[in-house]
Amino acid sequence: LQARLVVADRLASVGTLGAGVAHEINNPLAYMLVNLHLIREGLEKLEAQGAPSQPVASIQQLVRETTEGAERIATIVRDLKVFARGEQESRPMPVDVRRSVELACKMADNVIRHRARLVTEFEPVPAVEASEARLCQVFLNLLLNAAQAIPEDPSSVTEHEIRAIIRPGEPGKVVVEVRDTGVGMTPEVLGRIFDPFFTTKAVGVGTGLGLSICHGIVESMGGSIHAESTPGQGSTFRVVLRSAAHEVDPYPRLSATAPAGAR
Ligand code: ADP
Ligand code: MG
Description:
This protein is an alpha+beta fold. 47% of the residues lie in helices and 17% in strands. It contains eight helices and eight strands, in the order E-H-H-E-H-E-E-H-H-E-E-H-H-E-E-H. The longest helix is centred in the first third of the chain and has 35 residues. The protein binds adenosine-5'-diphosphate (ADP) and magnesium ion. This is histidine kinase.
């Protein structure tokens, strides 16, 4: 069986994706918030008319919590719109990749531990040019996908492995790989994985947004993301990042550029 390499360069960026998602979510969200407001008002009227205060109070609490949740979604949508307009407020800075990967591993641990052993292989690498929160989101997405490619079965844990690897790449590059021994992907699936909303998972399990967001994030950092897979054997996702600029040499070798007659 032949592994296939997919280079995701022509595909949707977080920009177009963000705009689409924001539009789709904004309308239903707006009427949810209006309805919640009306429900709150209705409850106040009921209370004023002498309705039993205990059930009213507990409904008010539910409405408050639901409103908070809806407002949180509104914030996320706003962020997506910001990204869509290219107004990134989180400026790239030197980030320790190992820390991001470790944090993502910790966040994914609950899902991974029922399905596979998590093995880490971290070589020393320079810092990369990135936004730490976004980078962590990329690795979390890759780890969760890897876990979801492995059946949740008591015997899985002994049979399957998810491997997170950090190693130096070509000069000026850092490579992070997430490998799994899960179901793998056919060439047809592999060719579409970075498309927004492409998913092979059940409704409610997958949105098909994870990898297109990963792709957009990595590209915005000047990096790249590739996938290879063999059906029935597993998949490898490889993220290549730019290492952060090194310290400026305090003693630039002026003599190298000085005219020959100057010395
Ligand atoms: P979602 O996880 O919501 O389906 P993603 O964009 O993260 O969306 O992934 C898109 C699709 O790519 C998945 O539905 C699955 O078919 C495939 N995929 C991604 N990662 C893996 C993996 N590690 N192993 C097998 N298939 C994968
Ligand atoms: Mg996913």
